[in-house]
Design goal:
By secondary structure, this protein is α+β, with helices and mostly antiparallel strands. 51% of the residues lie in helices and 13% in strands. The chain folds into two domains: 17-118, GMP Synthetase, Chain A, domain 3 (2-Layer Sandwich), CATH 3.30.300; 139-174, no CATH class. The protein has helices at residues 3-12, 20-33, 45-48, 50-54, 56-61, 85-93, 95-106, 139-148, 156-174; strands spanning 62-68, 77-83, 111-118. Strands 1-2-3 form a three-stranded mixed beta sheet. The longest helix is centred in the C-terminal third of the chain and has 19 residues, at 156-174. The chain is elongated and about 65 Å long.
């Protein structure tokens, strides 16, 4: 093998770890290419980070389905958002705030207009455990869980572990 061919092979090889976020656009390019008849997403991050961009309340009732820019430009685009029929009116009223949040995410006036399309939004799966037991934990359950967490320092982690421990004991109570 010639010296120049070796260099080309070395350039193509990757022997390191790359962040998923840096590879995301290349990985999702094919998946998002054909959205809305070829006018798909220019920014995959808009889909993957939708809830953090527009907020959980808006994200629960909507999802972005297409972003189209004027030919040759990367600003003044039209974002098509799919939502339920009843949510469209509420989203129409929130349009200025949603546009502001999206453009803040991009760092410039990438989206100039929002269009709403009626459709279904993803519904979160129901819990497999069935309906929740509304009975509060017993004193014995609280005491056992507190004793198990005695070595954990006070703070958010301990509080989360306490909730988890009580939930597990509640689920075991049902069996």
């Amino acid at each position: 093998m010639k010296e120049t061919e070796k260099k080309e092979v070395e350039v193509q090889r990757r022997n390191g770890v790359a962040r998923l976020s840096s590879e995301l656009s290349a990985l999702t390019k094919t998946a998002f290419r054909n959205t809305l008849g070829g006018r798909g997403f220019a920014e995959a991050g808009l889909i993957t980070e939708w809830a953090s961009i527009v907020g959980n309340d808006v994200a629960r009732m909507s999802r972005p389905v297409g972003l189209a820019f004027p030919r040759g430009e990367r600003k003044g685009g039209v974002l098509t958002v799919e939502c339920g029929g009843a949510a469209a009116l509420e989203l129409q009223h929130l349009k200025p705030q949603i546009l502001d949040r999206i453009n803040s995410h991009f760092g410039y006036g990438a989206v100039a207009e929002l269009r709403f399309r009626q459709g279904s939004t993803p519904v979160k799966a129901r819990s497999r455990s069935g309906p929740r037991d509304s009975k509060p934990p017993t004193a014995a359950e609280i005491e056992e869980t507190t004793a198990a967490l005695a070595a954990v320092p006070e703070g958010e982690i301990k509080a989360s572990l306490m909730r988890l421990g009580l939930a597990i004991r509640r689920d075991n109570r049902k069996k």
